[in-house]
């Protein structure tokens, strides 16, 4: 396993509780849209065993052409040891990234794509939308629906409705409205439904989608093969 140590080049305060850390791109480090990585702080591998409290599984919110590895995360006032250390890091400090992989690349199957997310989960979808805006081949339309009770919506410069670009972006701040909108979207029985958020959020969305007649194979989750069976019918893990 290769561990890439890299420096923080810039810190963007997206909202009072959400920051994006832009990291320098190490030589030969590549990734695709929908990628996640293991993001680790100094000292995580100092002992005989990795200190897991200094490692987090994070989505990459940028694409390679932006010349930065973006890690977007929510840091509340009361937070974990990991987030407390991260909050105090500054430009020039080093972090590590390793085991980078994408479970949710943009499927180009000539269908509509629906991106369903909660809060900072939108960071996973930013590269998918950018990839579509750069090259719209074999995707009919992208519709993003994001719920954030803080009303501090993320990436509104990218997630903006544009009929010309075949993009619709919706933001809501309460569950009732969110799930009504999800039901409305399921009028498209042939679409692809990507879901990113907490496990509870995933399960609730899957329940609604299946009840509305969306097939399990149309639902795409940011989970490894072995984790999919916990959320979707067992036979799916053999079909993906």
From TrEMBL:
FAD-binding FR-type domain span: 1-107
Source taxon at top rank: Bacteria
Entries under Gene3D superfamilies matching the protein: Nucleotide-binding domain of ferredoxin-NADP reductase (FNR) module (3.40.50.80), Translation factors (2.40.30.10)
Species this chain originates from: Cytobacillus gottheilii
Protein name (record): Dihydropteridine reductase
